[in-house]
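Researcher: Excuse me, tokens okay?
***
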Amino acid sequence: MDGMVIRRVYVWELPVRFYHWINAMCVVLLVATGIIIGRPVTLQVGGEASFSYWFGTVRFIHFVAAFVFFFNFVFRIYWGFVGNRFADWRNFIPYRKQQFVEAWKVLKTDIFLAKSDGVESIGHNSLAGFTYFLVFLAFLFQAATGFALYAAMSKAWLPQMFAWVVPLMGGDFAVRQWHHMMMWFFVIFAMIHIYLVFYHDYVEGRGVISSMAGGWKFVETPAAPQTAESGRKASGGNA
């Protein structure tokens, strides 16, 4: 740490942080209700059946979360064009040699646990950015198949936009199977994502965890060399 200073950098803007936590909440609700919808349980009740509309409530929560998830995702795409340089869409598609070098360095640290002096990227590193790009494609697939299934019971314009997916994929059963399998992709991704966030926070020490709450990260930069005059003032000496 000799000759280095720590400075704060505002990385994640408020809209990005809102997107992240809204998205996380939606994924939790969609997975929880999706598991129940895929394998519903029987509740033995003694009252009137119309008073125990719990499965309808589960489906309603799933549908509402799906709409919020979709429009939140659309907003994030928009913010990739108008946000700061850390939110820029170009961070998610590697097209420079430096990005591939950085991705390999991160891969060695994450998978092979090689010693690392940290990655220079302040926002998403190249490997994380490309991974999120693949996740965005998974988001789109999940939204398309989900709304395609919903189109059979809704005349709303958004589900009907995806009605063509069902015949393309071979019918409702096939679409339902793919939709359900993709749900487990998000479960696995969430576990890996949480682990790597804590791991990189430990390895790099840049405030990765707290940055998604406050937006700030910490970066080491070389300290400006002291001039002779500033050195005399700091030590209290005279010319």
Remarks:
- The first helix runs from residue 14 to 38.
- The chain has a mean pLDDT of 86.
- The beta strands are 4-10, 216-222.
- The radius of gyration is 24 Å.
